[in-house]
Specification:
The complex is a heterodimer. Chain A is mainly alpha-helical. Chain A has a domain at 93-268: MetI-like fold (Orthogonal Bundle). Chain A has helices at residues 2-29, 44-53, 60-72, 87-122, 127-141, 144-158, 174-200, 203-210, 215-243, 247-252, 259-267, 271-299, 301-304. The two termini of chain A are 18 Å apart. Chain B is 32% helix and 24% strand. Chain B has helices spanning 46-53, 81-87, 109-120, 125-138, 144-148, 157-168, 187-204, 215-221, 239-244, 249-256, 296-300; strands spanning 2-15, 18-31, 35-39, 62-65, 68-71, 74-75, 92-95, 175-179, 207-212, 224-229, 232-238, 306-309, 312-314. The chains are: A mainly alpha, B alpha/beta. Chain B: It comes from Devosia nitrariae. Chain B: This is ABC di/oligopeptide transporter ATPase. Chain B: It is found in: Cell inner membrane.
Chain lengths: 309, 320
């Protein structure tokens, strides 16, 4: 198990390195630079001076090494779009709304999806099952900005129960959280349903019935525990994917979150911010998959205990 | 009182292709302490009969109908879920073909035996654990205490089947259904497991229903044999009578296809043709398409049982 953890950690580090190189190269291969915009033209001399000050006149590999040296010291530089603060300050400011809304979306959505999937699996081919499957398919196929618009239309415009957008007070969080929750609900409903049906068909369930266990005990202790093994591996990556903000949800609900910076940093050739965002997401996904693998191994005695015979 | 009292049992599966008649009018009685072997090839309805009386078939895809379907004196067709749960594992236990898939992989052997004990009896966990260890020792598992902490994947098939038997016996059932309990095991282990089942049956004084396609297995373990074919009983009687003087052509063919029965260099005799398609079974006697003695009458109707001596009967037109 320890060896397994070490091996996985090394692969996390390697992934991180490879992604950083690829992103750095791709980022600089996009034509144009941070001072080529038409809205604020600068003269050739000023441009050269600015580029030199930011170190952008140096060869690419030197720029990369300089940047990564900074990263290792938690210095991600200064965003070109917002030179008054460091990248870290910008991230810690903008990430809070994304983390709260996206995080709550997954944390509330996943249990709902699990319940929906369980209800569907235990009442196979019933109205509940069809409802859950339809709901899950719609949740996965309707784009999140359409869901957002529908939520605004119904709850803010027609019913006038909730404010349509903004960040200030918690009542403004409800609709974006609901929009974020759509994908976790749908994903978990489908996952839970198929994992449970798969378990219910396994021979050991017949044995449990033949032993005289109650149906509740069979479902909640044995089937759910077995079904949970594939399910835990989805949770953390989904959490990371959602809690780093979605430009669609944040734009629809005018939330000052992280989502918009993923796009604007590329448009503005804001290299430090772009690198920081990508590296942050990469690292979090690597760690999420790492933890998911550990959880999978820990829940599964065949890996945790090992040793056939 | 009969532990198993089945009359007129039919089991029909609704499948995509249509209705499959797995069991078509079976009568079966097992007295206390009696051991009965149900023999037949795949699809003869032997396992389904046992699963039906335990109500372990997935309903409503499986439709069970019977004039009488009783297990340890309880009408299982009328019983509710709770009654069935209290019957299973306590009055009637069952062991299965493949021990490797019969345990929940994420719980230890000990957990799974203890939960069976505690599902039926009010005993503390340490008491149940001590009992579980005793049971494992009784099925000849060495270092029982250690094995209680093992997960199923850490044990071999033979060890798992022993643990399975220990678990089945944990509430001292009146009857044990053994559904091909040695089919998935190595040949060397098979005899040990059969011997163990036989010993425990005598020791616990319980009834035994041994479902198998292997005549060698029934010869070693049971008093009475029921031969099934195409969802119907063809012949039944004491084990010696069936082996020494089979009456039904199917029983004879089955015995002739046993390897090494006479010894020497005799070729194996197979039964020509294939098992009947349960979705569309032959008319009359289900064996008639493969029977060397069959005539037009055999295809017309199923013969009634001829009672040759009490407890010894066969259903064949050619006996009359």
């Amino acid at each position: 198990m320890l060896l397994y953890i070490i091996r996985r950690l090394i692969s996390v580090a390697l992934t991180f390195f490879v992604v950083s190189v690829i992103i750095f190269l791709m980022m600089h291969s996009i034509p144009g630079g941070p001072f080529d915009g038409n809205d604020m033209p600068v003269s050739e001399a000023v441009r050269a001076k600015l580029m030199a000050r930011l170190g952008l006149d140096q060869p690419l590999h030197v720029q990369y090494l300089n940047y990564m040296w900074g990263v290792l010291h938690f210095d991600f530089g200064v965003p070109y779009q917002s030179p008054g603060e460091s990248v870290i300050q910008l991230l810690s400011r903008a990430w809070v709304p994304s983390l709260v809304l996206g995080g709550l979306g997954v944390i509330l959505g996943a249990p709902l999806g699990i319940l929906l999937g369980m209800a569907a699996a235990l009442n196979r081919n019933s109205i509940i099952d069809y409802f859950a499957s339809t709901f899950a398919t719609l949740g996965l196929t309707i784009p999140v900005f359409v869901i957002s618009m529908l939520l605004i239309l119904v709850f803010a415009v027609w019913l006038d129960w909730l404010p349509a957008s903004g960040w200030g007070s918690p009542d403004r969080w409800i609709l974006p959280i609901a929009a974020y929750a759509a994908i976790p609900i749908a994903t978990y409903a489908r996952y839970t349903r198929s994992a449970m049906l798969d378990c219910l068909n396994r021979p050991f369930v017949t044995v449990l019935r033949a032993k005289g266990l109650s149906e509740n005990r069979i479902i909640f202790q044995h089937v759910l525990r077995n079904a949970a093994i594939p399910m835990v591996t989805v949770f953390l990556p989904m959490f990371i994917g959602t809690a780093t903000g979605s430009i669609f949800v944040e734009t629809m609900f005018r939330v000052p979150g992280l989502g918009a910076y993923f796009v604007s940093s590329i448009e503005a050739r804001d290299y430090p911010l772009e690198m920081a965002l990508v590296l942050m997401v990469t690292l979090m996904f690597c760690l999420a998959y790492f933890l998911a693998d550990i959880a999978y191994a820990w829940l599964n005695p065949r890996i945790r205990v090992g040793g056939d015979h | 009182m009969n532990l198993v009292d089945i009359s007129g049992l039919t089991v029909t599966f609704s499948q995509y292709e249509g209705q499959v008649q797995a069991v078509r009018g079976v009568n079966l009685h097992v007295a206390e302490g009696e051991s009965v072997g149900i023999v037949g090839e795949s699809g003869s309805g032997k396992s389904v009969t046992c699963m039906a009386v335990m109500r372990l078939l997935r309903e409503p895809q499986a439709r069970i109908a019977a004039d009488r379907l009783e297990l340890a004196g309880t009408d299982v067709l009328a019983a509710d879920r709770r009654t069935l749960a209290s019957l299973r594992g306590r009055a009637a236990a069952m062991i299965f073909q493949d021990p490797m898939t019969a345990f929940d992989p994420v719980f230890t052997i000990g957990h799974q035996i203890i939960e069976t004990i505690r599902a039926h009896r009010r005993v503390s966990k340490p008491e149940a654990r001590a009992e579980a260890a005793d049971l494992l020792r009784r099925v000849e598992i060495k270092n029982a205490e250690t094995v209680l902490g093992y997960y199923p994947h850490q044990l071999s098939g033979g060890m798992l089947q022993r643990a399975m038997i220990a678990m089945a016996l944990s509430c001292r059932p009146k009857i044990l259904f053994a559904d091909e309990p040695t089919t998935a095991l190595d040949v060397t282990i098979q005899a040990q497991i059969l011997q163990l089942i036989k010993e425990l049956q005598a020791e616990f004084g319980m009834g035994l229903v041994m479902v198998t396609h292997d005549l060698g297995v029934v010869a070693e373990t049971v008093d009475r044999v029921v031969v099934m074919y195409g969802g119907k009983i063809m012949e039944q009687g004491p084990v010696e009578a069936i082996f020494d003087d089979p009456k039904h052509p199917y029983t004879r063919a089955l015995l002739a296809s046993m390897p090494g029965q006479i010894g020497g260099r005799r070729r194996l005799t197979e039964i020509k043709g294939a098992s009947p398609n349960p979705a569309n079974p032959p008319s009359g006697c289900p064996f008639h398409p493969r029977c060397s003695l069959a005539d037009a009458g055999c295809a017309r109707a199923m013969p009634a049982f001829d009672v040759l001596t009490p407890g010894r009967e066969a259903a064949c037109w050619r006996l009359q």
